[in-house]
Amino acid sequence: MEFEELQKIWDLQNSQPLYTINEKALYNRIAAKKKQALHITNTSELLLIIVYIGSASFILGMNLSGQHGNIFMFLMAAWIFIIALYLLMSRIRRIKGSKRFDRSIGGDLSHAISTATYQVRLSQLMRWNMLPIGILALLGVGEGGKPAWVIVLLLIFFAFAYYAGGLEHSIYKARKRDLEILQNKLKNEASSGDDSSE
Amino acid sequence: MTENEQHHIYEKWLGQHKALIFKIVRAYAFSAMDQDDLFQEIIIQIWHSIPSFRHEASVTTWLYRISLNTAIKWTRKERKYYHADNLDNVQHILQEHSIQMDERLIWLYEEIYKLDAIDRSITLLLLDGFSYKDIAGILGITESNVGVKINRIKKYLITKSKKHYYHGI
């Protein structure tokens, strides 16, 4: 067989696409993604609240038990408590809000996107939160008369944490974008299905 | 570019060039699970690529470039589902048409699948009528390199087809 004949065989598929897109399977994929998004959000949310309350209590306890109170450390403990409270309120709002999505697949997808959006916002907030905490920690350490290398080390630590926060944020953003693409795909399929049924 | 514009282009591209993506999926992914996985990966990359499309090439060439790059990268990741259990119960996003595919086309895909990832790309582009220059541009290799590879691929496919037909299939 010559190559031109192979090309003719190849062209056979141009009149009949190889596949159709199974909407139900696409829906199932969405449901799985939603479950995954919810699980990640739940875990990271709870973990953050526990870590924040724990850290604030620890800083406060250390400061109260010491001989000299450090104003910056008190401020930091208060700030961390406020953030923990904000996280707790956001969690309650998110859980309440999840009831407004209907049980359809479109609703499931919107829910997944809403969860992902929440996750993106949360990671952004946590990233920016590094700045006040970092500044207060540095001021507190400075006031405590610690050597310069401790301050430098702390600075490096916060810079790294800020960078890592950026990476985490971009992962959540990409995940949200993937869900939106899936939603577009779903709308696209639905509208082409409508067209063909006309 | 606004999100609406991007969405509009995406819908248009996907509507008009779905067959192109299917061909690449079929040539690079063996099992139905892999085909679903690769299909999703390609449509996601196409969406991301829309803002950087500058009309310097045709949409077909652009989509081939994005889809083939994605497929080649995906092949390297080795996260295939050949040995996954209980695959019969999985519902696949891509479903083959109930109309029996031409036996010769099935054979051709099988032969293409035996080639390495780059040769597979060249074969798909060649079969879809792209010039040496276009193929070189899409894959980022020299035209002379494309020429050498095409000669080898053609020889391989012709020899295989002769053997195939010799055995009365």
TrEMBL record, chain A:
The UniProt transmembrane annotation reads 46-65, 71-89, 125-142, 148-167
Tell me the superkingdom of the source: Bacteria
Mind listing the UniProt keywords for this protein, alphabetically? Membrane, Transmembrane, Transmembrane helix
Supply the name of the protein: Uncharacterized protein
Q: Which organism is it from?
A: Chitinophaga niastensis
Automatic annotation (TrEMBL), chain B:
**UniProt entry tagged with the keyword Transcription:** yes
- Entry keyword Transcription: yes
Q: Name one GO molecular function term.
A: DNA binding
Ranges where the RNA polymerase sigma factor 70 region 4 type domain occurs: 114-156
> Sorted alphabetically, which keywords does the UniProt record give?
Sigma factor, Transcription, Transcription regulation
For biological process, the GO terms are:
DNA-templated transcription initiation
Classify the source by domain of life.
Bacteria
Q: What organism is listed for this UniProt entry? A: Chitinophaga niastensis
Annotated family: Belongs to the sigma-70 factor family. ECF subfamily.
Check the record and name the InterPro entries matching this protein. Answer: RNA_pol_sigma-70-like, RNA_pol_sigma-70_dom, RNA_pol_sigma70_r2, RNA_pol_sigma70_r4_t2, RNA_pol_sigma_r2, RNA_pol_sigma_r3/r4-like, WH-like_DNA-bd_sf
Query: Which Pfam families does the UniProt record give?
Result: Sigma70_r2 (PF04542), Sigma70_r4_2 (PF08281)
Name recorded for this polypeptide: RNA polymerase sigma-70 factor (ECF subfamily)
The record places domain RNA polymerase sigma-70 region at 16-80
